[in-house]
Amino acid sequence: MVKILIVGFGSIGRTHLENLLQFKNVNVIIYTKRTDLNSFVEQGVKISDSLTKCLEENPDIAIITNETSLHVPIAIKLAEKGLDLFIEKPLSHSVKDIKKLQTIVKKKKLITQIGCNLRFHPCIKKIKDLIEKENIGRILSAQVENCSYLPDSHRWEDYKKSFSARKELGGGVILTLIHEIDYMYWFFNEVENVVSISEKLSDLDISVEDFSASILKFSNNVIGEVHLDYFQKPNFKSCKIRGTKGEIYWDSDKNCINIYNIKKNKWETKFETGFSNNIDMYTSYVEEMKHFLRCVKQRKETINNLEQGVATLKIALAIKKAAQTRKSVNV
Q1: Could you give the angle at the alpha carbon of 106 between the alpha carbons of 104 and 107, nearest 5°?
Q2: Which of the four, 73, 112, 168, 239, has the lowest number of CB atoms within 10 Å?
Q3: 78 near 62, Cβ under 8 Å?
Q4: Distance between CA atoms of residues 251 and 18, nearest Å
Q5: How far is CA 169 from CA 99, 138, 183, in A?
Q6: Is residue 155's pLDDT more than 70?
């Protein structure tokens, strides 16, 4: 039986809990100040507003889903107790105390994973496979976007109070929508430098940037363009990758991968799951948790461990700095 402590209980905490309740041999404890979770208590979940009491249950694993600005402080406390760590994206809003966390994780040989579920989306996984097999030759450039409407993201709460909307809690599109930066890093590895325009453009009542347009130069000379915003309806994601032999395209509306073959001079559908993007997104959360638990059991590294989370965070922070200084920033 694996005991899992969930720290914080917003929308993503609820998602992870509902998925974990489908797994066998899992006991869940929740550390939260909320008092409206009796339905989960009836399902055997233990809930407490005291971290000390939660730790008295001797959990094996922690899933950290609280505010971004609190990820690293709580991760350090739990790592010191020897808990393997699943930390929701982004790892943090700064690099403060990250080296301390890395030192503890290495010393205690903990298994870590950053919660970037798009790495487990079947279409994103397939694109990575196509890149590695050089299906469209040498990659030249990539364009990705994630457009959403912040008030619709958590309809049961006031968007103005959410951590995504508040600077002091680590909000803003660059960190909150870091998925695209993460999977581009997964595709193309290290980024050398970035330029960006990131500002608050809309009428949303928030204290953070709601728009970001950035250019990333990767160490392998791939040029990446990333568009993120909080003000588009309906939600839309896309990924376009150009190579010397063709082009790969995916978007969240059609949710299939099309490839343009230069020699044949035509588009072909290369991959489709048969499901809507909403279903594949749900599946991605389940698969990322299965992967983490499997790696914990086997004591092997995950595909998105703490070190990769640090790398992705540094890219995001470089984007923020580039936008503030209006200059190219080395990562």
Answers
A1: 65
A2: 168
A3: yes
A4: 27
A5: 20, 40, 24
A6: no
* Alpha carbon distances (Å) from 116 to 82, 219, 262: 23, 22, 33
**45 DSSP β-pair partners:** none
Beta carbons of 188 and 142 less than 8 angstroms apart: yes
Q: Which DSSP category does 274 fall into?
A: S
| Residue closest to 183 by CA, chosen among 114, 124, 112, 253 | 124
Which sign, positive or negative, has the C-alpha torsion 70, 76, 79, 81? negative
Distance in angstroms (rounded) separating the CA atoms of residues 277 and 123: 9
Q: Which two tokens stand for residue 269?
A: 């559908």
Alpha carbons within 13 angstroms on the beta-carbon side of residue 117 total 18
299: exposed, middle or buried (Cβ count in 10 Å: 0-12, 13-18, 19+) = exposed
Strands 246-251 and 231-243: antiparallel
> Whole-prediction pTM value?
0.95
Average pLDDT, the chain: 96
- The 10s digit of each residue's pLDDT in 21-40 is 999 999 999 999 988 888 89
Q: Are 271 and 123 in contact (CB under 8 A)?
A: yes
CA angle, 174 as apex, 227 and 126 as ends, to 5°? 60
